[in-house]
Amino acid sequence: MNRTETRQVQIGRVPVGGGAPVAVQSMTTTDTRNPDATVAQIERLETLGCEIVRVAVPDQTAAAALREIKTRIRLPLVADIHFDYRLALAALESGVDKLRLNPGNIGEADRVRIVAREAKARGVPIRVGANVGSISKEMLRKYGEPCADALVESALEEIKVLEDLDFRDIVVSVKGSDVEMALEAYVKVSQQMPYPIHVGITESGTAWGGTVKSAVGLGAILSRGIGDTIRVSLAAPPEEEVKAGFEILKALGLRDHGPVLIACPSCGRADVDIVRLAQEVERRIAGYKVPKRVEFRAGLPREDSGKIFKRKLRAPYWENAGRQI
Fold this sequence. Notes:
By secondary structure, the chain is an alpha/beta fold. It is built from eleven helices and 14 strands. The strands form four sheets. An eight-stranded parallel β-sheet has the order 8-7-6-5-4-3-10-9. The protein has a two-stranded antiparallel ribbon with strand order 1-2. The relative contact order is 0.11. The longest helix is centred in the middle third of the chain and has 16 residues, at 148-163.
């Protein structure tokens, strides 16, 4: 597909935007003040393919812990900052690779200027933007309720704050929990600024429902060529976010990440337990990194000399195939 052209920023060792592959990121659920637990979870996420990881920074103790965490991991580290500009400065001192903050909730212009100056000096990008939970009171008064235009205008205001400070290492997001609203917002914002875009459906739900909702929303947005990084935001362990993210990108042909399992649905034509065997094959190939198609079919119609007949494959065939895989 033709992807929207954006500026490129560097998040640690991962390029974002400018034609780079769409990156998959997630956020830890551990207490950042516990480096051992946080590092262990980040390492599990990296094993699954996570490329950028974000951690919460609720106080100065967490900000100080970032230094140790950073030295023990390989993934680019993003600090999630809200309200207190001093936490952003402490995170920068600890060596993070990116800040996630909204200049509008940091406070006075001088505070934003200090953070932007320090981030620029270190080559650290800032992700700004809006979601349905952070739209300002002014925007709500103007539009009456959260909507795509409110999200876009909020994000553009935040961008202008940084641009006025000559800061342009920016990543933008306009997340909504409603798929249609998010799609409209991402299409509109992509037409009005040149920066790389982080795509997500916020507060999408639990592992099952949230993955389905995210797949629909992210699929619709990404299929329009919009998006440089993604997060599948689930009320579930972050490992599930990473797995879902890569499956979405693989389905769209945007990334190759391990095998793709092609399995026929269960039906009455098969005389073996297709569901059990497909799950077993999926389990066995889960650790493979090579992007291969693994086809798993039984009982499919086939034409032969103008005649259609059903071909049933016996259990030994499938079990041997599973062992070979």
